[in-house]
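Annotated sample (chain length 275).
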Amino acid sequence: MEFLEAVILGVVQGLTEFLPISSSGHLRIVPAMAGWEDPGAAFTAVIQIGTMLAVLIYFRHELWGVTRDWTRATLRIGEPVDRQNVRLGWYLGLGTLPIIFFGVLFNDQIENEARNLYVIGTTLIVLGLLLGLADHLATHKRGMEKLTRRDAAIIGFAQALALVPGVSRSGATLTAGLALGLKRTDAARFSFLLSVPAVVLSGLYELRTAFDGEWGGGVGTGDVIVATILSFIVGYAAIAFLLRWLGSHNTLIFVVYRVFLGVAVLALAANGTIS
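Output written by the structure step:
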């Protein structure tokens, strides 16, 4: 991997991790269209730590409140706690279980077969249409304070679908949140918070390859560091943009983009232009 490739892929990761258009899908599509080697699932997982840091810093006050109050309530320290923060802590844990279970169960398929361009093109289209349908039919009346265990479990299973490149973690969880009647910004905020444990665990798991020198695709540790830093900077800006956008717009622009890109990927893969 050349320095320019690392720069481009880091920017792509930052832009697409939080927008509902699939970061893992783009990190497979962009190299294919540019004629580069596939950097691999391990590279994808580790540079997600950059975007994870963006979430941690952007939502630092909310995350600290949840962690503090959940810990106090669980350990019965006796300090006053915000019961909503305690519930949110449990819901984030519950929503993370499905992606851990299926991630371990289907690890080999995720790192190999699921990175097929036909799979990515199809999931971009299908999940894009589902996002548009959910947004169109949603009531947009419920806030995060109205979340239940059932909601957390459903959104958690939706997040697990994002193990397949092209689905999009934020897209799947946003779709589920909207289908459950959440307001767009509340669905997005819960999606961001729910991504924290999943992406951290995934990135730490894949870090083992850094010490083994098994990145694949000609990727060096320096390339990973550059891409991770850029993904953090761009990812922070993407979070702010999406929350502002959803405050006064629907998700149509992302639906159209996903369908257009999915069709293009399928067509280019079918005629052998990309592979």
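Annotation: Residues 221-246 form the longest helix (26 residues).
Annotation: The mean pLDDT is 89.
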